[in-house]
Design goal:
alpha+beta, 338 residues, 11 helices, six-stranded mixed beta sheet, three-stranded antiparallel beta sheet, binds zinc ion
Length: 338
């Protein structure tokens, strides 16, 4: 059954029924899965999925074991993450109105989903969509997910930063910094990150305070003050007069949304923010290569299981590749010695 779940994600098949049919006519797959002449029926698959939903703790443990092994293999996995949300249109009618100029749709085939907003991608326009959002924290170094959750599309993404960081820490990831886009530029997110000793890397939104220029470094007649390091214990950054003629020549600014511990003017901030793209890449790969989309299940519980299995399949394959690489290295070293 686990092999079937893996095959489903590997071959990017949206349903169990089609996965079973593929295994049926594919001798090599049957051998690989070790199910002889009689692969499980699609009913067995759906029963298995129902059992997995009922025993979420076991599935979480399984994911935890895979991420543990991956942490041992891949250095820096989960040290710095990028957080974002991505649209997952529900397996339901995505038309908002039942007819042209008609009334708004009230009954949906998937009542757990809701209307949310997504941004434009390629030639697709941005706008409203009906479905779910995958909230994820992705490692910026390895490009692998470290924590994720599926929420209804209406839910505000900034609410999931703290739970994602907590979930990642529970799996043993360091999460020293979290990069996110403008949508997360909210004072509460900075406070939640500070509480968790995690550096937020978020660009500034055009709010009233920003229009006034409150986010700019201090100035004096000698010019703009320069950044002189941050004290993480004190949660403040130090700024210095460019010529040092002012009295006092430096000042501490408490960390906040307008003045983060890693100032947005610094090269370090820009480098870290650039790595945020990792999360967008990973969404693309999960959706197109690992059968995260299209959804062919309804209800948030089923959609969550679907996302868990797709990501678990991807992580397991990465782990297997890492192990194969280690085996090859060991073999090559042994051959050299002989
Ligand atoms: Zn000065």
């Amino acid at each position: 059954m686990v092999g079937l779940a893996l095959a489903k994600a590997l071959y990017a098949i949206p349903t169990w029924t089609r996965t079973v049919r593929l295994v049926h006519e594919h001798d090599a797959l049957r051998v690989a899965l070790g199910c002889g002449d009689a692969p499980p029926s699609h009913w067995a698959c759906y029963r298995f999925a129902a059992k997995l939903r009922a025993h979420q703790a076991l599935l979480d443990e399984c994911i935890g074991r895979v991420t543990d092994s991956l942490q041992a293999k891949l250095k820096g996995y989960g040290d710095h993450v990028a957080i974002d949300a991505s649209d997952m249109p529900a397996y339901a009618n995505g038309q908002r109105y039942t007819s042209k100029n008609g009334p708004e749709r009230e009954r949906f085939s998937d009542p757990d989903a809701s209307w949310g907003h997504r941004s434009a991608v390629s030639t697709r326009k941005g706008g409203g969509f009906y479905g779910y959002k995958l909230q994820a924290a992705v490692c910026t170094k390895t490009g692998l997910p470290v924590a994720w959750s599926v929420e209804t599309a209406r839910a505000n993404e900034s609410m999931f930063v703290a739970p994602l960081i907590d979930a990642a820490r529970q799996r043993g990831f360091a999460v020293d910094s979290a990069a996110a886009d403008k949508a997360y530029d909210i004072e509460r997110v900075y406070a939640e990150c500070a509480e968790r000793d995690c550096l937020p890397i978020i660009p500034v939104r055009q709010t009233g305070a920003v229009k006034r220029g409150d986010h700019l470094p201090p100035e004096c007649e000698h010019g703009t003050w320069t950044f002189a390091g941050s004290d993480y214990k004190r949660q403040a950054s130090k700024w210095r007069c460019p010529t040092g003629e002012c009295k006092p020549a430096s000042t501490w600014i408490k960390a906040s949304r307008l003045h983060p511990l890693i100032p947005r003017e610094t090269k370090r901030w820009k480098q870290m923010y650039r790595k945020r793209a990792a999360v967008e890449r990973e969404f693309g790969r999960l959706k197109h290569d690992w059968a995260l989309l299209p959804l062919r299940v309804r209800g948030v519980e089923r959609v969550r299981l679907h996302a868990d299995l797709a990501i678990l399949a991807k992580l397991s394959c990465t782990l297997e590749r890492a192990r194969a690489a280690t085996r090859a290295r060991v073999a090559a070293r042994a051959a050299q010695r002989e």
